[in-house]
Amino acid sequence: MTNNRKKILSCIGAIYEASKDCGLEKVFFEKMDAECCFLAGYFGTSKTQAFFVGLVFAFNQKGETADHYNLIAHFACNPMKLLEYYDDFAHLIDSQMINKRRTITSFRVHKTSDSYSIHPKITEAILNNKNMPQLVEDDIKDVFQLLEKLYQLGEQCRYGDISLDEMLQETETLLDAYKQFPFVTYLLRLDLSPKNLYTYLHLIWKTIVGNTATNLGSILEILYETTSQQVKQTQQFLHGENDLLQRELIELEGANFFSDTSIQLSSNSNEALSSFGIQLFTAQKQRKNLILPDRIVARKLHFDPKEMKQLFVLKKLLSKQQFTKTQKQLAEKSLPSGITVLLHGFPGTGKTECIKQLAKETNRALVKVDFSQTKSKWFGESEKLVKGIFSDYKAIAIELENTPILLFNEADALLSKRKAHHYSNTGQTENTIQNILLEELENFEGIFVATTNLVGQLDKAFERRFLFKIPFELPTIAIGAKIWQSKIPQLSQSQSKLLATRFAFSGGQIENVVRKHEIHQIMYSEKTSFTQLTDFCLEETLVQPKEKIGFTNIL
Predict the structure, then answer these.
(1) What angle do the packed helices 477-487 and 493-502 form, to 10 degrees?
(2) Residue-wise over 451-472: b if at least 16 C-beta within 10 A, else e?
(3) Which of 202, 335, 404, 433 is 20 to 30 A from 327 in CA distance terms?
(4) What is the pTM of this model?
């Protein structure tokens, strides 16, 4: 039917006026049959449905909410009378002619707290003398296109192309229209508030396209007009009062400044996305703390097999087949299936490099954590960050084929003895962090490794949490000679042994000397003499040997 704006508005106005106090009686519909018939021809509905579309349109134009309370008051009818038209409302909602929104009330009853508005396209068509528009989108073939469409609605709202109410209404309309997608059914069952639902959808799409975290402020700018409202909402997130946080659908990511607060999907959400075929493979490449095995440079390490017996057992255990078999059998016997390892010893003895090589040889990614990053200046945030580390690890483990290794590098402060007197905020925070870590390790199911140079200060509560406790000593003369020989092949066996004998260096100290050796050759375009090499060794240590090594031959 061709649009006749004047006729349509006249019919809507007539039924609006006549329906006041009509009680929805049969005689009213008989009286307004001509107007309802005309509107039904335009809208493509039954006469009764056309009546309700027109009435909701009139309410919206008045700036009023067309909810059950207002409609009953307008009709002056028994509440049960309005419910007789439940099927008509359901059809109009399914066909997207009217949008349904939930009204927040102190007393919420199913359906009766819903409010209705006309689809914006219908209003636009009527006012612009256009035919009844097609409301259902035909170009959305899968959940990815739907999520992109929903994200674009938010961007339209950000730049003022549509209002916030229109964006939220269209979001709900689209979700209702695509209930056939299992993931949409999951979203609707969450029963989130409209703004939290948008926040969640926005974060999901940003994660799909490769962002592990999204700035909270950029989302709140869309949902709240004033800065004070945005600050208030940010505070609720920081205090864990937001529904998305409380239901563990999202997490806060660590931030150094208030304005930098970011949110990310929780492991629960990642699991849900994965179960619906939404894999976040792009996200793992963006994580700064994730080191994939093919990015680790292969190096040959030298250890005494007798001293490092546990290390070789660990290497065998972390082979894919053995690890899977071991975890399964431990679980069957109701034993903890997680593998927890403590590497302790002198600085520079190869603790961190050892784990890197172990990760590469067993084809496992490394999730490296620098504990200094968890020392947030915002009191109370450090605890959340520690929990976030383990949640992030679980999310990564879901994405990867092989269980990754979670490495707490140089965790001296984290593993040290808890403070007996913790009256200061700092002391309370540090003790709380340690309690959280102990709790996480109690139920840990992956591979956890911590390194420390100060094992003597280890809190007793952590001792039983580590299955393997592997000491790293300074190299023996034999091992030290092998390290020198591998780093500088030009050295003779006697020279390598002499250096190892006279300088009780760690692998890291030997590495420093080797770098000076290489720099010297690059700068002066000449080979380093053995005397120069020993001078580099002397510069490396503050304790000088009693006798100077007398070899002066060129390497």
Answers:
(1) 120
(2) bbbebeebeeebeebbeeebbb
(3) 433
(4) 0.50
Question: What is the rounded CA–CA span in Å between residue 95 and residue 185?
Answer: 18
Pairwise CA distance, residues 260 & 217, whole Å: 8
Can you read off the two tokens belonging to residue 214?
Answer: 């999204």
Both tokens of residue 51? 């009546």
Mark residue 76 as left, alpha or beta (left: phi above 0; alpha: psi -120 to 50; beta: remaining): left
User: Tokens 């106005």 identify what position?
Assistant: 13
Task: List, for residues 265-318, the tens digit of each pLDDT value.
Answer: 888 888 888 888 886 644 444 566 788 898 888 888 887 777 678 888 898 999
**What is residue 104's predicted lDDT score, i.e. its pLDDT?**
42
Confidence of residue 320 (pLDDT cuts 50, 70, 90): confident
**pLDDT confidence tier of residue 14, bands split at 50, 70 and 90:** very high
Q: What are the extents of the domains in the chain?
A: 5-127, 143-284, 290-472, 477-540
Radius of gyration of the chain (CA): 34
Helices (H), 128-223: 143-158, 164-177, 182-190, 194-208, 216-223
| Separation CA 455–CA 259 (nearest Å) | 38
The rounded Cα 402 to chain-centroid distance in angstroms is 20
Extended beta strands in 276-397, E state: 290-291, 339-345, 366-370
pLDDT tens digits for 121-146?
A: 898 889 888 888 877 655 688 888 89
Comparing C-alpha atoms, which of 139, 499, 485 is closest to residue 302?
Answer: 485
Using alpha carbons, list the distances in angstroms from residue 459 to 401, 410, 412, 428, 463. 34, 15, 10, 16, 7
What does the longest C-alpha to C-alpha distance in the chain come to?
A: 119
Closest by CA position to 265, among listed 437, 396, 372: 396
Distance in angstroms (rounded) separating the CA atoms of residues 473 and 45: 84
- Look up the CATH architecture of domain 5-127: Orthogonal Bundle (1.10)
DSSP string, 432-464: HHHHHHHHHHHT--SEEEEEES-GGGB-HHHHT
Decide: helix, strand or coil at residue 344.
Answer: strand
Beta strand 250-253 with 262-265 is: antiparallel
Question: Which candidate, 245, 254, 235, places its Cα nearest to that of 375?
Answer: 254
CATH architecture for the domain at 290-472: 3-Layer(aba) Sandwich (3.40)
- How far is CA 196 from each of CA 97, 202, 223, 473, rounded to the nearest angstrom? 25, 10, 10, 54
| Residue 407 bridge partners (DSSP) | 368, 449
